[in-house]
Amino acid sequence: MKNITVLISGNGTNLQAIIDNVKAGKINGKIVAVISNKADAFGLERAKKADIPTYFIGHKGITREEHEQKIIDILEKEKVDLVVLAGYMRVLTSLFVGKYKNRLINIHPALLPAFPGTDGYGDTWNYGCKVGGCTVHFVDEGVDTGPIIIQRANEIREDDTLETFKQRGLDIEHQALPEAVKLFCDDKLKIEGRKVKIEK
Ligand code: GRF
């Protein structure tokens, strides 16, 4: 069984989806810690409700590396196998990314490589795309550039608003992210250069 840590900054609906899938026995892993860089992230409440240890690690007044080292200290103590970024709104330096290479994944709200950055849904919508979606990927040193594990499309309908498009997108994320976590925990993901092979 793999030890999973989830890093969040906000509402934590993706965290909730992982919690629910673990609880339902669909993921061969245990969430050993939920870490937030925001004290008031609602995801911390979700974790507490599920009896998962929570940590608030603020980033004000310290360097990025000092902040990351505090997180690494927790991850090492908990012997973490997989780190999931689920709405974690800080770019990680090579200190963190190097240490967790190939065991660090992120959910991004657009079909990469289109629309990297912080507002994938807004950017997809404002561009006038007919299809958006989400991407679960391994994290490398770039911003939203790592090898892709899963992508799911979300067709934009004539009667959509940004809000309805986003809500449907989140529902899709809540399927895709737990699926990627499950595949990782089952040792089914093999990284070959830019490609991630999913073993049967
Ligand atoms: C999601 O749209 C995710 O793709 C993006 O941030 C949002 C987090 O939502 N990285 P939540 O905190 O999981 O509800």
Short characterization:
The chain has 200 residues and is α/β, with parallel strands linked by helices. The chain has six helices and nine strands. Helix 1 packs across helix 6.
How would you characterize this protein structure?
- This protein has 200 residues and is an alpha/beta fold.
- Helix content is 36%, strand content 26%.
- It contains 6 helices and 9 strands, in the order E-H-E-H-E-H-E-H-E-H-E-E-H-E-E.
- The chain has helices at residues 13-23, 42-49, 64-77, 94-99, 120-127, 162-185, and strands at 2-8, 29-36, 54-56, 82-85, 104-108, 131-138, 148-155, 189-192, 195-198.
- The strands form 2 sheets. It has a 7-stranded mixed beta sheet, with helices on both faces.
- Strand 2, helix 2 (42-49) and strand 3 (54-56) form a beta-alpha-beta unit.
- Helix 1 (13-23) crosses helix 6 (162-185).
- The mean pLDDT is 97.
- The structure holds 5-O-phosphono-beta-D-ribofuranosylamine (GRF).
- 5-O-phosphono-beta-D-ribofuranosylamine (GRF) is lined by residues 8, 10-14, 43, 86-87, 107-109, 134, 170, 173.
